[in-house]
Amino acid sequence: MKKLFMFALVFAFVGFANAQEKTTKGKHAVKTERKNNFDEWSTAVGLTDAQKTEIQGIQAKYEEKRSSMRQSGTAQDFKNLNDERQKEIEKLLTPEQMKKQEAFNQRKNEEKEQKAAMKSSK
Q1: Burial status of residue 55 (CB atoms within 10 A of its CB: 0-12, 13-18, 19 or more)
Q2: What stretches of the chain show up as alpha helix (H) in DSSP?
Q3: Domain membership flag for residue 107
Q4: How does pLDDT run along the chain (122 residues), one tens digit per residue?
Q5: How many Cβ atoms are within 10 Å of 94's Cβ, its own excluded?
Q6: Residues 49, 71: Cα–Cα separation, whole Å
């Protein structure tokens, strides 16, 4: 009887332990790869190394402003700051790069809409 009880106890423990594992196959796969959006954007737009360096400097400058504004800033303040940053970046782009950026942004927006549609259909 003790052996049967021990067997049932071990069986239950193993069952509970396996039930806690996360599945990594199928639709519940866990993403571990992080995308670098700047690299993806800069490649799509065709930035030169000099442009990349300047844009990273602009982003660092605005990140400092954003972090100082975090406690007391409103959503409109952040939007204005992002608009200023975007205007500075766009001054560095050529007309051809601006067209590529518009195409990139349109493609990203379509991807977001597809993801939202997939989430809402679940």
Answers
A1: buried
A2: 2-19, 37-45, 49-69, 75-92, 95-121
A3: no
A4: 777 767 676 666 666 666 665 555 555 555 555 567 888 999 999 999 999 999 999 999 999 888 888 888 888 989 999 999 999 999 999 999 999 999 999 999 999 899 888 888 76
A5: 13
A6: 35
The answer to whether position 27 is within a domain reads: no
Amino acid at 54: E
Residue with tokens 């300047």: 54
Tell me how far apart the alpha carbons of residues 94 and 84 are, in angstroms, rounded to a whole number: 18
65: its two tokens: 């402003």
Burial of 81 (0-12, 13-18, 19+ CB in 10 A): middle
Q: Does 11 reside within a domain?
A: no
Cα–Cα distance measured from residue 67 to residue 85, given in angstroms and rounded to the nearest whole number: 14
Report yes or no on 21 lying in a domain: no
Q: How many residues does the chain have?
A: 122
**Domain encompassing residue 76:** 50-88
How far is CA 49 from each of CA 55, 56, 94, 121, rounded to the nearest angstrom?
10, 11, 14, 42
- The tally of domains found in the chain comes to 1
